Amino acid sequence: MGVSPLLWLAVLGLIVGMLAVDLFAHRRAHVIGVREAATWSALWVAIGVAFGAWVWWAYGADSGQQYFAGYLIEKSLAVDNVFVWAILFTYFAVPREYQHRVLFLGVLGALVLRGVFIAGGSVLIASFDWVLYLFAAFLLWTGYRMIRPRDEHLDPERSRALRLFRRWVPMTDAYHGQRFLVRRDGVLLATPLLAVLVLVELTDVVFAVDSIPAIFAVTDEPFLVFTANAFALLGLRAMYFLLADLVHRFVYLKVGLALVLVWVGVKMVLKVDLLYVPTPVSLAVIATVIGVSVAASLRVTRGQGRRAVAAPAAPPFRTATPEELAAVEPLWRRRTPAGEQEAPSAGRQP
User: Fold this and answer.
1) To bridge 139 with a disulfide, which of 117, 178, 204, 265 should be the other Cys (CB 3.0-4.6 Å)?
2) Number of domains in the chain
3) Which residue spans adopt a coiled-coil conformation according to this UniProt entry (predicted)?
């Protein structure tokens, strides 16, 4: 599959353009409802599917099937990411109208980070065939850990990253609108929104460690790996607002994701040993496993409505009062202290 630099630039331009459209559409902070989230989710999925159809038409059925297999893997694993975000936003009491800003920057960072991971993975696979065995072993181990019954849950309060952030970065304990940084009494402070953004980025690093090796099991073409990742990630924000209150209903999804990781790990081992599994077979297995796990989850939890994740009794952060917001100083220019006159600028009479 020969991909010209011009095509790479065109795809990157398309992604930047779609990010700009999304940012413009959500330039004002507001609570994103289910209908709006469903509309945006449908739009992003349609764009991702349309791009896959173009790949199928331009480069043949095998490339198209590889793209869709990778897209389905990334989209499925992204649902687990959504559940983690729901826990983080609820625990830290992030106002719903500010969550899109965090997710937008989080997804932007994820695109850059995964681009680096994909480039590094492609170089390793091209240089050392045995790396595929390491990827396969990691996927099999990850799948086993996901499917094994454990009494574990995400506890943001015990986050080592948050403790380190609060130790080394001066910060306030109150949200100041959508600001990530504020200046108070001449001191530059991070807001809790920046701390949450850091945690969102770190969670994507953890999920990328699973998803990048998984997609290399269905295609080793960097263009397909990157575009499948990118178009799956672009719809992640809308998916969050659509599914965040339905976390409790996807009870079997983690089992389905575990089986998918085990399957792609086995497929990767077979690929190294020259026992090639056709892409249509791999795509059918992934779609069937995910479809059955989702359908079984919705069936066993039928009758349950939307329900937000349980919030802690005493969230660690709060919303700034009007007096605190009024006391915020200009971010990049210190406010002149009371009783002092601002020095005249050059060329201006005092």
Assistant:
1) 265
2) 1
3) none
Residues 6+ apart with CB under 8 A from 307: 245, 246, 248
pLDDT bucket at 285, cuts 50 / 70 / 90: confident
pLDDT tens across 161-174, in order? Answer: 778 888 888 888 88
Strand partners, 161: none
| CA–CA separation, 135 and 122 (whole Å) | 12
pLDDT for residue 153 is more than 60: no
**Nearest Cα to Cα of residue 77 among 281, 254, 228:** 254
55 inside domain = yes
Q: 């700009």: which residue's tokens? A: 20
Q: Which of 9, 1, 15 is nearest to 64 (CA)?
A: 1
Q: Predicted confidence band at 338 (pLDDT cuts at 50, 70, 90)?
A: very low
In a domain? residue 335: no
Which residue range is the domain that position 136 belongs to?
A: 5-151+159-326
CA distances from 241 to 155, 183, 297 (A): 21, 31, 19
Summarize pLDDT for 178-221 with one digit per residue, the tens. 888 888 888 888 888 998 898 888 888 877 777 788 888 888 88
In a domain, 313, yes or no: yes
Domain contains 225? yes
